[in-house]
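[Solved] Which block belongs to which protein?

Original post:
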Amino acid sequence: MLTIGPLKIAMPAIQAALSGFSDRPMRVVARRFGAEFATAEVVLDELVIREGKHRARLFKIGDDDRPLGGQLMGSRPEQFAEAANDLVEAGYDLIDINFGCPVKKVLGRCRGGFLLSEPENALGIVRAVIRAVGGRRPVTLKMRRGFDDSAESERNFFSILDGAFALGAAAVTVHGRTVKQRYIGPSNWDFLARVKRHAGSGTILGSGDLFTAEAVLQMMAETGVDGVTVARGAIGNPFIFRECRALLQGLEITPPSVAEQREAVELHLAETLKLYDDARAGATVRKFGIGYADLHPMRDEVRQAFINASKLEEVRSVLTVWYDDQREWPTVTRRKMLRDLIAAGAL
């Protein structure tokens, strides 16, 4: 059981906030295949408080998409606080503060991972958000293990971590790479173990290099973290959550059948069409389809088919041709699937 403030989450692997990915369709599909808790896409505080289509879409939360976390990014404490209050009023179940985004344009505007280099500013934001939320929802942080590998960066990290818990943060997610690393090189799980030992009873979630259910359980066993957030590993693979649940229960897992994969992609498409017009829906599902292809017995061919699909009808054609459950597909063991993905550089 993962405890984050008043939230009790039976499955300790939750879907992370993913810019450009973890919209409602992705979350609905993830929940269909085992995710209990999900976080919406990271959003700028100013877009939350500004009237418009983005705010309206952000505030449409269905009963089938709960419990739900909202992740905020910005640089001004008062604006962060206002946006956090708006998300609470809209019905979000948790407010997460992003101090980990490594994208250059974000860093250049003193947001995301940049704030790991400014502990006073970062804690000013945490303080403002917790005051604004006023105990109505748990407030959490997303951090990387520092801005870079310097000793000063590590001191700043622990200053923010300790200060956030002292202010009342319910949990902190730690990604095992620095901001400077972005996604290059392995995630440092030894650092996650140090953080958990340091935090003691404070709830720590681990992040980084979680592309399989086996990796999720390995991280928890090796580092002692209370739970994990699955980010890129859930793109095109909602089945990772059901597989985590199975392993936690001591059960064996097998790759999803082509019929199950088709069910997931079709649900993803149907939910996407509820949000966007045909052109945008086709482009969005094509993007996810490239990820879904990694699970298919004919991975390379299906991946190329999605890459070549530029319109909605072409995406549907990929489903018709490559996800025909009446066709006899090669049998793929889980071990072979993982070996092939590693060889292809997909893991």
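(Second protein starts here: sequence line, then its structure tokens.)
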Amino acid sequence: MIGGDLIVDNIGELVTNDERAGDRLGLARGATVLILDGKVAFAGPSGNLPQGAVSREMEHLDARGALCTPGLVEPHAHPIFAGSRAHEFDLRARGRSYGEIQAAGGGILATVRATRAAGDEELIASTCARLDRFLANGVTVVEAKTGYDLTVEGELRLLRLLGEVRARHAVDVSPTLLAHVPPPASEADRADYVRQFAATAIPAAARAGCEAVDVYCDAGAFTVEETRTILAAGRAAGLALRAHAEQFTRTGVAELAASLGARSVEHLEEYGEGAPAALARAGTVCNLLPGAALTLKLRWPDARRLLDAGCHVALGTDCNPGSSLTESLPLMMSLACMQLGMTCEEAWRGVTVEAARAVGRPDAGRLTAGARGDLVLWDAADHREVVQHYGVPLARTVVVGGRVIVRG
């Protein structure tokens, strides 16, 4: 998408994430944002806007005293799938566990069957519809995982379709190849699948523009050694590394991922004593996913301990058909403050600059000179209101690259 020219003025409160402003959110009041050719040229108090910077030809937005923030960044999502698992949601409400449902042929395998059967255009359309809902919640960058086919050819197909989505949609999609769970024993030998995934799928994905590889390491998924094999192959192919870590059981894979230089680890409900220090030393982003903990009634990940250890902590929806069917990052901020021990400031950074770090978008999640011209105007006057007023869509206007995509 070609970048646009835009002036947004009469901003009541502006979040820039420019720490030079004196606080970690870089707050400014009575502010203006100027975007030229899709990039931020100025963001700050209106009185500091250089004379002659604004031309009559550029589009003008009057914020009418509203809160303005960077576009939000989703660091962990599974948006490409087919089918519904609403009946499983009801089964859990009736007391069935996630493991029991999966053992009976539900869970991931139910989505795999539906996704394999779906046509390309059906998958593209449904994924674009989910990105529309992300946009409506103020999200302009989405990390998007494959993972619902469980064959090498099928996962590469999903990656190709994510490329089609990326070309069609205003949201910036960051594709990740996910080793979700081993295929059923009736379909493939487990050890052979791991070898093929490492030797064939990962190099092909890297050639196709994939940005990262992720492995789900837990009971019922891949072992620590299988995870090591896949991540090592990803590193050799030049991909960023991620790992679903310590969601249901404590495996030690968080420390393994950190030792391999992983860009992020995901979930962390059950992380071990040494994980925070190891992740902090490595600079690995901790992508916490409170929606999944809420849906599955798991232990809330302890964000406070990670933050106190010096870890980078981001927040994601884990948007997926079974355990966190939501596209609302603002709701994740609310849960983080109410249940994970995070402050409003930390939650905002978790869906902007820290999430951008996890996705490898250093120019996203901030409104500073040279950053991408993605911003949101909210039906709020104070950044803390968005976190407090949970479960309500407050994003009013969403701008991507200097162009108004959602107009409130």
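Accepted answer:
You had them paired correctly. Confirming on the second one: The radius of gyration is 21 Å.
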